[in-house]
Design goal:
Blueprint: H1 2-35, E1 42-48, E2 54-60, H2 85-92, H3 101-105, E3 110-112, H4 119-122, H5 127-132, E4 139-141, H6 143-147, H7 151-156, H8 162-184, H9 187-202, H10 208-212
Parallel strand pairs: 3-4
Antiparallel strand pairs: 1-2
Length: about 220
């Protein structure tokens, strides 16, 4: 109970600071998105969240509105044709994730946690993963987000079809590392993951998280 209380305080503190720091970016980004692509500013998509209940996640619009029903569905590949020109920059810099601070303030998400998946992917998890993965609210960042921050490039290196490779290799490993997080979760680990996320944004080729978090499940990659 104390961990959850402190985690909520940390969430509100970080989300509040993020809003103050990045709010000046929101207006020009909203104007650019309105005037380009399909004219959509925000993209709300149903994801599975805390206690495996659905909620609407907020993002800046970076892909075609009908993208879940096109191409590879909820799996994004390198140079995905569904990604809009402005969206490429927003996705690379992770700026497209910033509106999720509103999900954090509403209590639907945390700053740190498992990335919430669409139902199509979530149902592929085994029962053990489904039971424990969202025992705390899903996060804007997390250990899975660090490992798969360039998921498109990992998929691109495989000879298998994107969806098949995702379901056979990426999704099972995501489940393992998120179970690891649930077993080891602490306020210190959350703060460490926030730091490592910032480090990875500044130094995208760094694997500092692998050097610090040495007891992670063995990677198939």
């Amino acid at each position: 109970m104390m961990y959850r209380f402190l985690k909520r305080i940390l969430d509100l503190l970080v989300a509040g600071i993020a809003l103050l720091v990045f709010l000046p970016l929101f207006i020009p980004i909203m104007i650019i998105l309105r005037l380009t692509g399909e004219g959509e500013v925000f993209y709300l998509q149903e994801r599975i969240g805390y206690k495996n209940k659905p909620f609407k996640i907020w993002k800046f619009a970076t892909m075609l509105k009908n993208s879940p029903n096109l191409g590879t569905g909820d799996v994004t590949v390198k140079n995905d044709p569904r990604v809009l020109p402005t969206g490429k920059f927003l996705r690379k810099t992770k700026i497209n994730e910033l509106p999720q601070v509103f999900n954090v303030i509403r209590g639907e998400m945390s700053i740190v946690g498992a990335r919430p998946l669409m139902k199509q992917s979530f149902v592929q998890y085994n029962e053990e993963v489904k039971k424990v993965i969202y025992d705390t609210p899903p996060g804007i960042t997390g250990i899975g987000s660090l490992i798969f921050r360039d998921e498109e490039s990992i998929i691109d290196k495989s000879d298998l079809p994107p969806r098949e490779f995702y379901e056979k290799f990426i999704l099972p490993y995501k489940g393992l590392v998120e179970i690891w997080y649930q077993k080891n979760k602490s306020l210190f680990l959350d703060i460490l993951i926030i730091f490592l996320t910032g480090w990875a944004i500044i130094f995208p080729n760094s694997n500092l998280h692998l050097k610090i978090l040495k007891d992670l499940p063995s990677s198939p990659f």
